[in-house]
Amino acid sequence: GRYAEAEAHASACVERSGGIDSGSYLHGLTWRVAARFMLGQWESALADQAELERVVAEDPRELPAGYTMRAYTFTALCRQLRGELDEADRYIELGRRYFDSVRSMRRRGSLQAQPLALALAHRGRFEEALVLCPLMPRTAGAGLTLELLCEITATQQRWEDAAGLVAATRAEAEIGEQLQLPLYADRLEGRAAAAAGDVERAAPLLRRSTEGFAALGARWEEAWSRLLLAEVLVAGGQQDAGRELAAALPVFEQLGSVREAERTRAYLADVAV
Length: 273
Hints:
By secondary structure, the chain is an all-alpha fold. It has helices at 3-17, 22-38, 42-55, 69-81, 85-101, 105-108, 113-122, 126-132, 142-155, 162-176, 181-195, 199-216, 219-235, 241-255, 258-272.
């Protein structure tokens, strides 16, 4: 969850290795794509991806090197959220071909697969997403898989699974000292409470998720939690829903997150009536 620090370290790597060590340069670009995506610096992330692809253009291998795949999968997710579906398809297909070629990775988890799984989930391809990211507790990829599971569980409205998943997510967060992970648990728990009609419990949880992501600089995640909070406030007839929607909309518009921007505008129109 220390995205700004990750971006700074990746930038230092890129600056020091450019023109000297192509391997380190590609490592730096890969991690900077990931960090910049999470920070809501999507144009910069896509520019880094273009530079990465320029450098590897003469690589004779059919598929990208494994250590660069995290950049490709984040690009798939970014293109998907921006509604650039032809480009998203290209990166999704490349990612699927890569992971099909390294099936052993599924047995031990993968840090690279989760953004691709999220892109698939946004397409409604949930089974494919879940196959890519099996949950293996206490591994390096467990937190990322739990983030994915929190989102899929809420999207599919499997509220009967929410309590157990929230508990597992909080436990993994404590063990791994992952700052972002409790915020996904808060969001799922809040959405489950809202689905049960418990607005008084849902709103504080979604507000905590919103504020937590804001503190980490995770702009899209903050705006998404803020939109969900606003929807709960609308359902509860609370007047500050419009303020939350007005704060979320510019983020989605700047990033080009098309479905979320449309959803926010629709709620703003309802609130204004």
